[in-house]
Amino acid sequence: MISIQQLKREESLKDHCGVFGIYARNLNVAKITYLALHSLQHRGQESAGITVSDGWKLRGIRQLGLVTSVFNEGNLSKLKGFISVGHNRYSTTGGNTIENVQPVIIPGNGDFFAVSHNGNLVNAADLAKRLNGVKRVTTSDTEILALIIKFTEGKTWEEKILKATPDFAGAYSIVACSKDRLFAFRDPWGFRPLVLGKLKGNIVVASETCALDTIGATYIRDVLPGEIISIGDKNFRSVGIIGKKLMKFCLFEYVYLARPDSILNNVLVHQVRQKSGELLAKEAPVKGDLVVAVPDSGTSAALGFSQASGIPFGEVLIKNRYIGRTFIAPEQALREHSVKMKFNPMKQIANGKKIVIVDDSIVRGTTMKKIVEILRKSGAKEIHLRICSPPIRWPCFFGVDTPERRQLIASSKTVAQIKKFINADSLYYLSLDGLIKASKQPTDKLCTACFSGKYPMPVNLNFKKNVFENNC
Ligand code: SF4
After folding, report:
1. Cβ(119)–Cβ(171) below 8 Å
2. pLDDT digit string (tens) for 368-386?
3. Ligand 1 close to Cβ of residue 252 (< 6 A)
4. Is the beta carbon of 450 within 6 A of some atom in ligand 1?
5. Fold (topology level) of 269-441
6. What is the pTM of this model?
7. Residue 447 annotated to the active site
8. How many A from CA of 250 to the centre of ligand 1?
9. Fold identical between 10-248 and 269-441?
10. Atom from ligand 1 closest to the CA of residue 253
11. What is the CATH superfamily name and number for domain 10-248?
């Protein structure tokens, strides 16, 4: 039996985390963090947190739920200080519990270390063995890495981070703070984005440039893969870079994860998606009356497909934008309407048409099957699917929650079998070469593992996100 929450997640590798940090003595840092987190909500919808330092004391709010439900004028006004670190979470290691809400805070020796992490360590279990006897209060890998940093030798947090991070394997784009410094550091593979910006002379750090735009900050540059940055009052310095030349940026950020108005590695995400649609129209042409997107993720690609094919773009599926993760699953009798509660078709437009549906990806295939069914019931004459990324055959271990491999429809079915399962008249995926071309990134600087199975480092294919659940 399928719930709305499952339906929301199943057609894409949707979620991971968003991070933000600011050091500013002349601004309301908590409120700015709130606004930035709001613009990064797409990166994680399970929980949100903000931690603020006034140089002496740490104050924070961490709750399960969306940014708008966790924070309000009243609780934000209590977060006084000049350094703020924020986080939106979707869990990849450790369940969705209040203990695991970030920033994770590690106290010690008159100071503290508050950590917001986007990513996932593949060697967290090995690192945890080094913490024998150390009390842990979460089941996430973030606490493990923060504790390892704390217990690493060094006079300053900067020294500790520099010495500890070479032992971390996997994805981490991190914003952290001590009582008087803000830090930003990124794994040497640079899986997840992390950018520096300037706001009224102050330095901010965010997962994506869309957060900088929202708060009125200007982009300075990316935090480089492997780079550790220390931020103070209106200045920052690069403390060092570890593991140079390993870069493997996540190709799926361009496909789905990032917002279309963000710039990743100097390329606007919307343009990558549009180009992927154009290339797919050339790789897999089709005769149709209307190109439609599965809103909102497929919209940029559908526009590109429409322009390259000459088939007009139109709307058929109207999305209910107000179905959140906490939506109560309908009773048995209403369950068959689950997809319709998310996508309602306009029958008058679909009726009698040859429809080309463009979407970013297919994970399990069940939602797409239902969308096709809805459109057929609406009178569509033919339904052709065009997917603007290659088949997802392998799980991600670098900060994106994917189902087990056997649940990925393309891991066990051919494209022809998927077409049959979904009941489409035709189905084509964009080639990996096509997607890489659309991204404008050098092939050797990208992680393509969920499409190609070529992981940039050894991974445990039996990994489970609750690995530390009985272990702390
Ligand atoms: S496997 Fe690689 S490309 Fe796929 S989602 Fe994970 S990091 Fe991105």
Report:
1. yes
2. 998 999 999 999 999 999 9
3. yes
4. yes
5. Rossmann fold (3.40.50)
6. 0.93
7. no
8. 5
9. no
10. 8
11. Aminohydrolase, N-terminal nucleophile (Ntn) domain (3.60.20.10)
